[in-house]
Amino acid sequence: MSESRREWIVKTAADMVEPFEDGFEWEDFVSLVPIAENKVILAIALGLIITGKRKRLVCDLLHEIIDITDTWGPDGIIDPVLKAVVSAFLVGGR
Fold first, then answer.
1. Calpha distance 24→40 (Å, rounded)
2. Which tens digit of pLDDT belongs to each residue from 48-80?
3. Residue 1 pLDDT greater than 50, yes or no
4. What percentage of the chain reaches a pLDDT higher than 90?
5. Counting beta carbons within 10 angstroms of the beta carbon of residue 27, is it exposed (0 to 12), middle (13 to 18) or buried (19 or more)?
6. Can you spell out the DSSP letters for the chain?
7. Contacts of 87 (CB under 8 A, 6+ apart)
8. Residue 68: CB partners within 8 Å, gap ≥ 6?
9. pTM for the whole thing?
10. pLDDT of res. 22
11. What are phi and psi of 45, to 5 degrees?
12. 33-66 residues labelled b (16+ CB within 10 A) or e (exposed)
């Protein structure tokens, strides 16, 4: 039985940031992009998730990582900016 798209995103994002619990740096975020892409490709191939376009799923996964990690400034200001950059880079903006 496949997980819901949202459940998969939340679980996968938490697993991806776990190795960084002792100090996630935003430089580490760049290394997570290809990992996120590979996780999405594998999940689609295995039928774990069945909805959504690949780039959008990668973007949503990276957005979740932004949500669950701390940044250098207030989350209410910094997180939307980081999400906009990720969206523009991966899917051409919103």
1. 22
2. 876 668 888 999 999 999 888 876 778 788 889
3. no
4. 30
5. exposed
6. -PPPHHHHHHHHHHHHHGGGTT---HHHHHHHHHHHHHHHHHHHHTTS--SS-HHHHHHHHHHHHHHHS--SS-HHHHHHHHHHHHHHHHHS--
7. 59, 63, 93, 94
8. 13, 14, 17
9. 0.82
10. 63
11. -60, -35
12. eeebbebbeebbeeebbeebeeeebbbbbbbbbb
Q: Can you read off the two tokens belonging to residue 48? A: 């774990």
How far apart (Å, rounded) are the C-alpha atoms in residues 51 and 57? 9
